[in-house]
Design a protein that fits this description.
- This protein folds into two domains: 115 residues, ATPase, nucleotide binding domain (Nucleotidyltransferase, domain 5, 2-Layer Sandwich); 166 residues, Nucleotidyltransferase, domain 5.
- It is 45% helix and 23% strand.
- It has 13 helices and twelve strands.
Length: 336
């Protein structure tokens, strides 16, 4: 049985299709389309029509692809850009018409919980206590937990698209621009992270900023999730990377190996946010995870389908029963 998830973010539309076989999920396809849905949202308070049309167009294309792949169960979630916009109802109605099913608008805290479920579904972290930093386009989330239990989480409107539109007004950004951004981020994050302790937790980074920083360190000519997943970045590497990027124009940034052209204006604010977080926490290393919200949504979708099927079977049998949802190993095996 095949499942598809649409993660409608502020900067990109992420799409994943997986097939369940027994207790495992086999990855069929995964892609990310840059839509910049949150373009100018901070200035207007509404989603721009051009941004809406870009996003709906990509959604339509991916919906057709899902049909061709034989997907039977779907879920779509919308995050920061949509929940913070004045015209969210209009967008959600249009998105539902394109997809053929409703889009779930989730809160920042719910987003944090689902991100944790997605990251912790990786057997690599099975015995680890985690501190996750997820930097999106509109918001960023900080989550602590172990096993399947979240112990602390919060979400702030400090995504890289918002930071770029508020604080980055020219390229090269320059030393003064970077220093100003770091100062503002320290002021914003110091109180928020005051009660967070890294201690023996493994610091994990998810989202486009983390994956791009890893890709640049490896100078990847093509984006390779398998090489990026579990890559370890040091705080010094991130700081050095910012120092090199701050003197580059947009044309020069577009030629940096490992940096996608549609992220060239977002990498400095995203990297600065990650660096300041690590600085406040006293962290020296960060491990990149390619899992995140979409994997958490996938995890929930599979369990919802299991629970609904079990409930239907119990109802059909016309007897009381305890519904037990079978455990599911999310060791993703890439399809051949």
């Amino acid at each position: 049985m095949r499942y598809a998830v649409f993660d409608i973010g502020s900067n990109s539309l992420k799409f994943i299709v997986a097939e369940r076989r027994g207790g495992r999920m086999r990855l069929i396809t995964e892609t990310s389309r840059f839509t910049r849905l949150a373009e100018d949202l901070i200035h207007t308070g509404s989603l721009k029509q051009d941004a809406i049309e870009r996003t709906l167009s990509e959604m339509s294309t991916l919906r057709v692809e899902a049909e061709k792949l034989g997907v039977k169960h779907f879920c779509a979630v919308a995050t920061s850009a949509v929940r913070d916009s004045k015209n969210r109802k209009k967008f959600l109605k249009a998105a539902a018409a394109v997809l053929g099913f409703p889009v779930r608008l989730i809160s920042g805290n719910e987003e944090a919980n689902i991100i944790f479920e997605g990251v912790s579904s990786d057997p690599h972290w099975a015995k680890s206590s985690l501190f996750i930093i997820d930097i999106g386009g509109g918001s960023a989330e900080w989550i602590q937990g172990s096993g399947r239990t979240v112990t602390q989480r919060f979400s702030l409107p400090l995504g890289c698209v918002r930071l770029r539109e508020r604080f980055i007004h020219q390229h090269p950004v320059g030393s003064a621009g970077v220093e100003r951004l770091r100062t503002i981020l320290h002021q914003q994050l110091q109180p928020a992270l005051a009660h967070c302790k890294l201690e023996d937790r493994l610091l994990v980074g998810t989202g486009g900023t983390s994956s791009c920083l890893a890709a640049m360190e490896m100078k990847l000519k093509e984006f390779d999730p398998q090489k990026i997943n579990h890559f370890v970045l040091t705080r010094r590497q991130i700081g050095d990377r910012i120092e090199r990027l701050k003197s580059l124009s947009l044309d020069q940034l577009a030629r940096v190996p490992g940096l996608p052209k549609k992220r060239i204006d977002l990498i400095i604010p995203g990297a600065a946010l990650m660096y300041v977080c690590m600085e406040i926490l006293g962290a020296q290393n960060l491990t990149v995870s390619m899992r995140g919200l979409r994997y958490g949504v996938l995890y929930r979708l599979v369990h919802e389908v299991d629970a609904a099927r079990a409930e239907a079977q119990a109802s059909s049998a016309r007897k009381k029963t305890t519904v037990t949802v079978p455990s599911l190993s999310f060791k993703i095996v890439k399809a051949a």
